[in-house]
Structure formats: C-alpha cells, structure tokens
Amino acid sequence: MGHELIRNLINGEWVGAKSGRTVANINPATGESIGEVVMSGREETEAAVRAAKAAFPGWRRTSAPKRGEILARAAQILTARKEELATALTLEEGKTLHEARGEVQKGINVIEFMAGEGRRLNGETIPSELSATFCWTQREALGVVGLITPWNFPVAIPSWKVAPALICGNTIVLKPASNTPWTAQILCESYLQAGLPPGVLNVVFGPGSAVGDTLVNHPDVVALSFTGSNEVGIHLNVGAAKHLKKVQAEMGGKNPLVVLADADLDLAATATVQGAFGSTGQRCTATSRAVVEASVLEEFTALVVAKTQALVIGDGTKPGVTMGPVVDNGQMKSVLELLEVGKGEARCILGGGRLTDGDLGRGLFIAPTIFAGVKSEMRIAQEEVFGPALSILVAKDFDDALEIANHTRFGLSSSLYTNDMQRVFQFVERIETGITHVNSPTVGGEAQLPFGGMKATGVGQREMGKTALDFYTEWKTVYVDYTGTKRTTNIY
Predict the structure, then answer these.
(1) From the candidates 92, 250, 293, 463, which is the catalytic residue?
(2) Contact, 376 vs 393, CB < 8 A?
(3) What residue ranges define each of the domains in the chain, with the CATH number in brackets?
(4) Is 383 a catalytic residue?
(5) For the whole model, what pTM was predicted?
C-alpha cells in the first residue's frame, strides 16, 4: 500500500513545488519508499499566506456555529476513513496499528470537541460603573496563523492546532513534518470534503529553514503555534518576537514516574513500560525517568525488565507487534548517540543498541533500553532521548523523590504511584509539571482538558480544551453608552 506524489494545498488546490524537487516517503520498518512529497520553499509559502489572507474576511464573517458544522462533518469523514488514516500513519511513522488507531481517534475527539465550541464561543457581560452603559467582551479572530507540527503525532497534533484555529475564525498555513506527509494529506482532504472554503486551510511541505522561517518573518502571519524541539522552538520564538507575533511553543519533556514504597508495583511497572516504550518512546510525554524509593527498587526493576523483555518489536502493521521502529535515520543517529552517552554514565541493564537480526535489519529498530544507577546530574537523566530509553533513579524517601523529579529544566508530565492520599495531594501541589497523573502513566491526555507544560517545556497558552481558544483569539471590550446626552461623570 502506498501513495503517489503528495503536493502542497494552496487556495483549495493541490499544487507542486516550483523547484520540482521531491523526496521519498520511507517506511521506517522496511526501508521501502511508499511515495514522494514535494519540497517547497519561500515562494510556495508566500503563495499560501496570500491565499489565507484573502480567505480570512469571508471565514471570519462565517458564523461560529456554521464553522462548527464544517468541523463536525470533517470529524465524521475522518471517522469513516479511520482505518485508512491509521494505516497511513503506521506505514510512514512506524508506530503500531493499535497505537495509530488510538491517535486517529484522539484527533477525531479534538475536532468533535472544537466543533461544539462554535456554539459556546462566548464572552461576558460586565457591569459598568456608569449608568445607561452596557459593556461586554467578545472574542476576535487573529488572522493568518502559521502552524508547525512534528512527525511523532502527525494526526493528533495538527488536529489540536487546526480545529481551534478554524473554529475561532482564523485562516491557516500548516507546515507538517516532511516525513509524515500522507497523514497530513488525508486530514486536509477531510476538511475540504466537509466544505471548508478554499484558502482557509493551506499546507506547505518543505524544510523549516525555508517554510518555517518564511512564516516567522512574514508580516501577514500574526501568530505561530509550534510543537517540536527546544532548539527550533527557541529560534522561532526569538524570531517571532522581533515582529511582535503571538507564539505558542510546546517543546521537550523529561517526564518522571515516581514509585513510592506502598505502590502497587506491578501496576507501576506496567505503566512505566507503556510510557517509556509505547510509540517507541517518541513522544514528549514519554516516561523518561522512573524515580523509585530504595526499599522497592530491586523488585520494581525486575518487574520492569521482565515486562520490557516481553515486548514484541517489529513492523507495526503485523499482528502482535507492540513496538515499532524510530521514524528515520536522523532520529536513529540521535538516539544511538545518547544511548552511548548513557552507557558511559550508568549501567545499561537491557538493550542499548540497534536491532539487526532478520527482518529487523531492514528497518530502523532500536532495542528497548534500561539504565540503572542513574544520577540526576547525568546527561541521560537530563536530555530528552525521544527514543526507547528509560533511566531508573533511586530515592531515599518521598521528599527526595520529589526533589529528583523536579530536577530538570523540563516540566511537561509526571506520574505518582502510591496508595497514600496525603502523599498524592503533596505531590500534586509540589510537582513542577503542567500535567500530572496519579496511578496512571505519564502519557495520554483528553480532548476537553488543557495540554502543556512548565519551565523549558513551553511558552504561550495551553493547547486543547477550552483553553485552546485563548491562543487563537484576542479579546475585544465594548462600551455602549445609550444615554444620548453628554456625560457629566468623570471618565478615566
């Protein structure tokens, strides 16, 4: 199964790149090409911005409930194409079909939720200190927004950016990751089939140095929402600040799962393996660190190792496979380099390198890797691996575990395993993460709840839930004086 050449979407038409340059879309499990995608640059990006700018007045004037109807139809179309989209996701990104189906459903959930916001896009009426004066607030669309999305969740992340941007009345230039173009094409086709007017949603494939930088510097792009690495996010934020653009950036994580002595260890170990090796560890909420009280360290570690050894690694389209490959050669190189660093710092008790036996040799497979004896100051405990790697750190007690958990520049997600409710509330109060879980894995989030982190994990307002509307709108405050006469009261 594959596809032909994937093109840009500009003003409702699928168009090629002026350069004629294309790159292969490679299945990371087999090394085979499943199609090609155009590589575009500044010229195509500027054309997409012009189309979005021209479409903005009409889309803004479209009532929010009508915009919501289009989103609802898009969700229905995606539901009908769910298996097709999940298969495309597995083939070009590598995660298992089970994981891909879950991601597609998450995207559908987000779109459905945002469709409903079209009938709840409300402000407030607020009393004035002046008589015969009526005051209210209302949300206003921003204009043309640039959305830059990564390869690791190429359905869910574009969904939770595109849907709120559209429901608020903005028009879009989307730059998806070039190594997951097929999913982006299906997602955008569904919006077009749902009746989205030409130019409201545009897609440009190409390198960040050309497409992304054009969005950052273009005067008609008023806001940027980015998900990806800290290095790129900081570059984008600095560049956008020069033009006073609104910026939302969700970046790295080094998420701790804390296991106290009274925890259900089997449950905690299961969650740790799910969080560390699900989606091949290629998610910002992955469980990077297990912080374990010393008295249960040996038993917990044995459980984690046994459950990790039970993982079935291979092509995600095959039945029974529970972990797929990393996405491409660049990611393979990055992960392997950090695993080598980890081997020099701590004890590698499982995995540690590339898998090449049999059919695995055709793809980009890395063994699930566990490091023991890890200390907080080590690079393996501080840097985001974004691959199948887990560091186990020992804590003396609850307070020490909390200090270790917070000892990172990131603050996205965390988890605590305990049956002590006093500790639960202390943890929730003191943990420095935007998302925290109790007796559930560090991964996962629901469409109606905010998503985002603290510290170096991100800047700007939260994504998902009702809070997503805050980034994609500005507030307008309205005063209506209906006295019909000159005021004698002082107005400040």
Answers:
(1) 250
(2) yes
(3) 5-251+457-477 (3.40.605.10), 255-438 (3.40.309.10)
(4) no
(5) 0.95
